Structure formats: C-alpha cells, structure tokens
Amino acid sequence: MAASAAADELPPDRAGGWDRTWTSDPGLSREAHETEIVGHADADEARDAAEKQLLRKLRSKPLSIAEARAFLATHELDDGLAASIIDHACRRGYLDDSSLAEHLIHVAVDRKGQGRTAIAMALQKRRIPRDVVDAALAGLPDDDGDRALEFARTKARQLDRVEQDVALRRLVGQLSRRGYAGSVAMEAARRALDEHRGARGVRFS
User: Fold this and answer.
1) Do residues 128 and 101 touch, judged by C-beta distance below 8 A?
2) Nearest alpha carbon to residue 179 among 108, 106, 115
3) Which among 89, 44, 92 has a CA at the least distance from the CA of 67?
4) What is the band of 174 on the pLDDT scale with cuts at 50, 70, 90?
5) Which of 2, 152, 167, 187 has the fewest C-beta atoms lying within 10 Å of its C-beta?
6) What DSSP assignment string belongs to 127-190?
7) Helix (H) / strand (E) containing 84
C-alpha cells in the first residue's frame, strides 16, 4: 500500500520507475550523435563551396563587402557562416572597400574622364559605405574644370558642321552625363568650342 502511494506521488514520466527521457536503445543516442556530425559536415561543405565561388568571382571582378554579402546570401548560409567567410576574405585582403574606391576613382578619372558627381554615384552604386566614399573623394584633386575642358576639347572637333547653339548644348549635355556640374560643363564647353572655332572668328558669349 505504501509502495503504491509512493508510485502515485511520482511524476507521470517517472511512474513505475520509468523515465521517458531515458532510452532503452543505445542505438538511438548514437544515431542522434551521428546525425549531428553529418549536419556539421554538410555545413562545412556548404561554407567551403560558397567561399570558393566567392573567391572565383573576386578573381574576375573586385567586389565591395556589401556586394560580397549579397552574393553569399544566394547560397542560403546562416549568418555566422557568411560572416566568417567575409571576415576571412577581408583579413586576406580580398575584400577592401577603401582600395576598391581608389581603384574606381582611378578608372573614372583616367579612363572615362568623369567628374566628381558621377564618381560619387558610381561608388554608391557599388554599395560602398558613405564614409569610405567621402574619404576617397577627399583625396581627389579639385580639378573638375581642367578635366572637363580636356574632355570637351576632344569632342569639339566633332561638332564642326553643327550650328553654334546646338553644338554648345550637345557638348554641355555630354559633360553633364559624365558628372560635371552645370557651371563647370558650360564653361568648359564654351572654351573648348571657342578654341576650336576661334580661327573662323566664331565666339560664344
């Protein structure tokens, strides 16, 4: 009778001396452990595959850190694994927003003849942080006027057969599309056309 009362006082999971959290089959716990190991292996394989694809992409095109994160997001990695890949790439110098900004500025100035506005928009489009963009542009010489004039001179000779006002509008438009401010574009266009047509006595006022 006392034993029966004691059994009644036990929680349902322990009644009759049995604990439902126990298992009578050691294979079940072994199977759970093996499943956990397989899960870790799958995660490691997914991480390695994603990292290799990222490095392959970086060999063909430099990416900003934000662009790299977006690329990894397509691989359905958890945040921790993605962050570890980004951190590893940064430590190895594969990802560097400051270096990327400097490279893009070099291309924009030396190859495309772009102005400061277009350069800033290009850096922001690559998802480079604003503070990095500002720091990179701070090191850019304040020579938009000279670069605009240089570009305008290369285009002025192509407008010989175009009326004066039309030539001016076209050249200003070309300069504006390259990121030169309105006043800078207008001044450069006028001067370039004046220089090119000066021998014929055509002046812009």
Assistant:
1) yes
2) 115
3) 89
4) very high
5) 2
6) T--HHHHHHHHHTS-S-HHHHHHHHHHHHHGGGTTS-HHHHHHHHHHHHHHTT--HHHHHHHHH
7) helix 79-91
Distance CA 116, CA 131 (A): 16
Query: Could you tell me the two tokens for 90?
Result: 């940064």
Q: How far apart are CA 193 and CA 153, in angstroms?
A: 7
Residue type, 144: D
CB 82 within 8 A of CB 69: yes
Alpha-carbon Rg for the chain, nearest whole angstrom, is 33
User: Taken in order 41, 42, 48, 52, is the CA torsion positive or negative?
Assistant: positive
Per-residue CA distances from 104 to 7, 54, 92, 205 (Å): 78, 20, 20, 37
Q: pLDDT value at position 125?
A: 95
Give the global pTM. Answer: 0.65
Q: Is residue 21's pLDDT more than 60?
A: no
pLDDT band at residue 142, thresholds of 50, 70 and 90? confident
Which pLDDT tens digit goes with each residue over 123-139?
999 999 999 999 999 98
Q: Which residues of 144-177 are buried (b: 16+ CB within 10 A; e: fewer)?
A: bbebbbebbeebbeebeeeeeeebbeebbebbbe
> DSSP code of 22?
S
